[in-house]
Amino acid sequence: MRKKLFPQLWMYFVAITFLLMVVVLSVFVCLLFIVNHFKLLAPERENHLFPFYFIIFLSLVIGAVLSIFVGKRILQPIGNLRQAMNKVAKGDFTLQLGEEQQVEDVAELYHDFNVMVNELNSIETLRNDFVSTVSHEFKTPLATIKGYVQLLQNNSLAEEERQSYLERMLEGTQQLTHLTDNILKLSKLENQGIGLDFQSFRLDEQIREVILFLQPKWEQLDLTLDLTLPRTNYYGNEEFLYQVWLNLMDNAIKYSQKNSSIRVQLINETQGQLIIISDEGIGMTEKVADRIFDKFYQSDTSRKTSGNGLGLALAKQIIELHHGTIKVNSIPGQGSSFKLFLPNDLENS
């Protein structure tokens, strides 16, 4: 059964049209009665056409008043909606219409319009975040793969080393394959609230894989790695958490001084897992540390080409989706220490 569109608008239009006809008819009947009773249109009377002109003038006034009323109640809201839709068509997704309208159907129409604009804004944000995040997150795996390709050009490599490098390159390409889907899911989580898929995996082995994957970078700086990674099974999203360790370790290497050290600790606590990643790099001020997890925030403009300020924001969001926390302690010139806590009870939550 076809649903009636805007019933109240039709009621207003019909009622106003009917009222217009009744009022005009009543005025004409009254005027004709007066004219006939007093014989005002008799040719022998002076100004005998005045009542006729008066009837025309009165009809025009009544029609104008009712037209203005119809315009303000029905036509003007539709005109406002048309103008708003033109702005949305040009890319303005922040526009909102006031929903406090006297006609209920107009209020519902404005409400549906606002919902539509919010959805379009969410989709636009999703698209922008996806493009920006992909451009940032692809750089680390691509740089690592490039490093192994350069190592493979050494003809003196042993076959065992060559196979090892090829396997790590394969892992990097697989990581790139999964990365696009993961970032898209993460953006949807932020904008639409879709849930994560959790499973049990070896957390210590995952962190080792990331460190091994970044080996060309930390070997180039002659960094010393101090690892404390006891066997740890964890229930969470394996693919997303991989991005956390990749971002944090990549930052620790990037901002470290040559011949310095990086310390990675995995501590099994009663309520969850504590992960600490510390470096001896350039550090940051308290002001920078307060904003380091904000999207697109970059404190060091000289390093702008190495990222767009999304890595740590992405890491924080993933940790929070695991109901965990991430904090940073840093001293300029001495290094930074990132502390993450992941609770153990996700399987029952």
TrEMBL record:
<feature type="domain" description="Histidine kinase">
    <location>
        <begin position="133"/>
        <end position="346"/>
    </location>
</feature>
<feature type="domain" description="HAMP">
    <location>
        <begin position="72"/>
        <end position="125"/>
    </location>
</feature>
<keyword id="KW-0597">Phosphoprotein</keyword>
<dbReference type="InterPro" id="IPR003661">
    <property type="entry name" value="HisK_dim/P_dom"/>
</dbReference>
<dbReference type="InterPro" id="IPR003660">
    <property type="entry name" value="HAMP_dom"/>
</dbReference>
<dbReference type="Pfam" id="PF00512">
    <property type="entry name" value="HisKA"/>
</dbReference>
<keyword id="KW-0812">Transmembrane</keyword>
<keyword id="KW-0902">Two-component regulatory system</keyword>
<dbReference type="InterPro" id="IPR003594">
    <property type="entry name" value="HATPase_dom"/>
</dbReference>
<dbReference type="InterPro" id="IPR036097">
    <property type="entry name" value="HisK_dim/P_sf"/>
</dbReference>
<dbReference type="InterPro" id="IPR004358">
    <property type="entry name" value="Sig_transdc_His_kin-like_C"/>
</dbReference>
<keyword id="KW-0472">Membrane</keyword>
<dbReference type="InterPro" id="IPR036890">
    <property type="entry name" value="HATPase_C_sf"/>
</dbReference>
<dbReference type="Pfam" id="PF02518">
    <property type="entry name" value="HATPase_c"/>
</dbReference>
<protein>
    <recommendedName>
        <fullName>Heme sensor protein HssS</fullName>
        <ecNumber>2.7.13.3</ecNumber>
    </recommendedName>
</protein>
<feature type="transmembrane region" description="Helical">
    <location>
        <begin position="12"/>
        <end position="38"/>
    </location>
</feature>
<dbReference type="InterPro" id="IPR005467">
    <property type="entry name" value="His_kinase_dom"/>
</dbReference>
<feature type="transmembrane region" description="Helical">
    <location>
        <begin position="50"/>
        <end position="70"/>
    </location>
</feature>
<dbReference type="Pfam" id="PF00672">
    <property type="entry name" value="HAMP"/>
</dbReference>
<keyword id="KW-0843">Virulence</keyword>
<dbReference type="InterPro" id="IPR050398">
    <property type="entry name" value="HssS/ArlS-like"/>
</dbReference>
<dbReference type="GO" id="GO:0016301">
    <property type="term" value="F:kinase activity"/>
</dbReference>
<keyword id="KW-0418">Kinase</keyword>
<keyword id="KW-0808">Transferase</keyword>
<keyword id="KW-1133">Transmembrane helix</keyword>
<comment type="function">
    <text>Member of the two-component regulatory system HssS/HssR involved in intracellular heme homeostasis and tempering of staphylococcal virulence. HssS functions as a heme sensor histidine kinase which is autophosphorylated at a histidine residue and transfers its phosphate group to an aspartate residue of HssR. HssR/HssS activates the expression of hrtAB, an efflux pump, in response to extracellular heme, hemin, hemoglobin or blood.</text>
</comment>
